[in-house]
Amino acid sequence: MVIGVPRCLFYYRYQTLIRSFFNELDIEYVISDPSNKKILEDGKKIAPDEACFSLKMFLGHVKNLEGKCDYIFIPRIESVKLDEKVCTNFYLLYDLVNNLFDIKILDFNIDEQKRKTEKSAFIQLGLFLGFSYNRVITAYNHAKEKEKKVKNNNILKQTCILNNNCKKVLVAGHPYNIYDEFIGKPLIDTLKKNNIEIVYSDIYDTKNIEEESSIISEEVYWTFNKEILGAIGKYKDNVDGIILVSAFPCGPDSLINELVIRKIKDIPILNIILDEANSDTGLVTRLESFIDIINKESAYE
Asked: Which of 36, 106, 128, 145 lies deepest, with the highest CB count within 10 Å?
């Protein structure tokens, strides 16, 4: 059996856990190709009209996996924290793909509101694939240890950047936008070419999230957006600027970004909304202007 994993949406949050879990069980898997123009065009042909840029890209990644695997892994993720939800895209994926494609889907449910935890979801997945409970729980525990190690190493590296005497910008957005080869990479590449060190909002220890996110809003319904706000609250005093990155037309992001712009007044903020019609030239021009603002403000300090 070969399992296909779309390189989009949930992948960028859970990639270490997914890869490590499958490796521990010696399961063969294939990741879809890095995002490109063809993958986007394939997704646009399939997607509902109201789908956001990221969802269109996801459907293109599912299309990219057709014929390369026996099952495509598409979990349902509704809530990862009590009294909060994730974006509806994360729990409609299974039904959307099931209706648009003639493929076999491998899935599980994560819904903390209904006590369907991440751990129980991976156990369910392993048992379905025919492994014993003991082997599945061992594989999950080892995968979690690997995930924790990668996260801690990333936080350590980012802490070193924050302590450096260099120009730093916090790139605040969902990892499935920031790290995507087609969506966020041009932005990241432009910053690096202009000698800007990047602080990523998803490299963030959430243990003080209630306090750090409340700097901007005391009530946030969407967990992933709340984590972005927490990172902004934590890092804003240690960077020279903030770039908000979102995909059109994301409702939660539009609300959260507006809150950030209204509440954070003592640091330059650039709001970048990406869609399939964006030109790299226009993006580069806006970023270079933003960098000029940062450099000028530093000169006056």
From this structure: 106
